[in-house]
Task: structure prediction
Amino acid sequence: MTDLRGKVALVTGASRGVGKGIALGLGESGATVYLTGRTVTEGQSAAKLPGTIDQTAEAVTRLGGQGIAIRCDHCNDAEVTAVFERIRAEQGRLDILANNVWGGYEHYTDGTQFWNEKEFWTLPLGRWDAMFQSGVRAHYVASCLGAPLMVAQKAGLIVNVSFFVAQRNDRGVAYSVAKAATDKMAACMAHELRGHNVAVVSLYPGLVRTESVMAHAAFFDLRNSESPQFIGRAVAALAGDPNVMQRSGQVVVAAALALEYGFSDTDGKQPRPLTVTET
Result:
């Protein structure tokens, strides 16, 4: 297992799902993990799903790291700035930034059968705004605030959580364009940060057994699925790789990294890396 003791990480959107899994994966490697989210009371999430930032922080600590929860709405720049100011004051460094927070899924809780949605012109314009404001822009703002800490120490890793839809044309306009923008942002940031020894990648999970996916498990084939913590192990492996700069600017697939770095999922299984045509 990767040893990240002494390293400081920030995972955005970590009340549940992939964000929680990334925090756990970094925690079991011994990192100090700051994690953000809006849910502080069980059952009060916008998506009506279980999980809070404090529960995630406690789980990180149980696994051997140090979990520190900060309530933050990533659409509020002042709140985001305060997160980074706290990290600077308390730690004086930031080694890993996992940009996971995302928006635009709130409609899944209003009774809409989202798997039957069609044609971009029939969907509310707010879908686009939410994915770019709470997703793409949120990643950009966090990176702008985190990069100076990494540049000062001449080392760091920024991971943008993305997905295969960035390379497809048939998975919804807003979602696909937002993820494509996420990938391009990582590539451009990598170019500008290369001289400072700070790596930036886009990370593609496979089918992850998040709370939302499991709530609709009847609609998914879970035989080749991944736990959220498996994605965290991928981030930890990247963070512990002394040659990670060779990957900077690239899209990396979590299951492919598992084969390269030699880690498995929490159940001991080795998920098969998906391809663009399979998603």
Observations:
- The beta strands are 8-11, 32-37, 66-71, 96-99, 156-161, 198-204, 251-253.
- The longest helix spans residues 126-153.
- The first strand starts at residue 8 and ends at 11.
- The chain has one domain: 8-278.
